[in-house]
What does this fold into?
Amino acid sequence: MLAQKSAGASLALHWREYLIEGWALGTFMVSAGVATTLFEFPGFWLHQAIADPDLRRALIGVAMGLTAIALIYSPWGQRSGAHMNPAVTLTFLRLGKIARWDALFFIVAQFLGGILGVLLVQAVFADAFAQAPVRYIVTIPGPMGVEVAFVAELVLSALLMSAVLWVSGSPRFERATGLCAGILVALFITFEAPLSGMSINPARTLASAVPAGFFDHLWIYFIAPPLGMLAAGEIYSRTRHRHEPCAKLHHSLDRSCIHCGYEPTVVRRALTNPT
It folds into this structure.
């Protein structure tokens, strides 16, 4: 059982981790905005050089998958756990892997960081980013309609969270959790983006919607991803496990953890034998 601190105590102790969550999703949005603008804005040479839209989307997917992997395994990402997604945080909260106030501050930071990341890209690329076809990289249902978009977001969210839980819950493969997550992000963007825009993240969708002033179908991206990930968490929790994952996508053994209370050996010795 996690020790529950007050809001003030949590903020005083863990504000750095909250800022990291904002930084992580903000950086992801910057990468997404830059990659999409370079590949999709007709005035840029990458768009002109690659005529096939499917290939351009695949390359964007690779860029975003690599960005996710880099953030998860970065020193800062290892410190907070690199959720970068309110639906991920809510699932770990449901599983009892993150304290309530930490979860709330994580989610607030994710929303704010995502919006700031999009505003930064807008400041750099101006109309190339703000106007069609890039249009702030908003996520909208594809030609197959709202129902298909909702189901796609639900299923993909469940798949991603299942992968995170099952891989991180395996002592043998837990170090590959971030790699698996990044590969799935790349594949989802490549093959699923035409159906829903590939969000699986409420904060990612709102980050584009706010500066764009475009809130159509926002409910899809606020309901389907949490529902899919929570469902994956429920399925995982109802099976027996020898190794329970922490609320980190990569749990480094040389870093303290605000979620499970882990302290590296050197830190533990310093705490027990102060000089």
